[in-house]
Amino acid sequence: MDFVLLVFVFYLSWALAAPFDASPDESMRYQIVEFIVKHGTLPDGRDPEIRNANWGISYAFNPILPYMAGAVFAKVVQVFTDSFRATVIAARMVNVLLGCGMAWFTWKIGELLFRKKGDRKAVCSSGVLCFRGTCFLFSYINTDGLALF
Predict the structure, then answer these.
(1) CB proximity list for 141: less than 8 A, separation 6 or greater
(2) 130-134 LR contacts (CB < 8 Å, sep 24+)
(3) d(CA 76, CA 70)
């Protein structure tokens, strides 16, 4: 359990340190969260409010379950503050928590694979969870965190 807490602190720190739109498409993904918070309904990908003018597409056409959860977190945060940064961090928390879930599962898989072989489960788990790409995916608004989980 200490391992999962350590992963939580690490991913949360990364999510707090990363500027908004550090990934090339976080702003488009955040539009879905923002739409759900603002309107209280699921978006239609054809809606001009959430369609990117440059690309002519919207992430509302993709699976949006993590965005829906992010909207719930963002709505709760907006009860206390109207800070844009706080709302973004709340939406990112979905992926931080999914990363913690993946950490727990990875640890358990390591226990099954490496019985009686010392502490290789820790090496296995930290190896998977500390890849730079994995850390990045669990620190911003996206659906890839759910897929990895």
Answers:
(1) 26, 29, 30, 33, 66, 67, 70, 88, 91, 92, 94, 95
(2) 130/10, 134/99
(3) 10
CB 22, CB 140: distance < 8 Å:
yes
Instruction: Return d(Cα 70, Cα 89) in angstroms, integer.
Output: 9
Q: Look up residue 66 and give its amino acid.
A: P
Residue 121 has pLDDT above 70, yes or no: no
pLDDT reported for residue 114: 77
Place of tokens 């390591």: 110
Instruction: Flag whether pLDDT at 118 surpasses 80.
Output: no
The whole-number pLDDT of residue 143 equals 94
| Residues 66/142, Cβ–Cβ less than 8 Å | yes
Find where tokens 């890839």 sit: 144
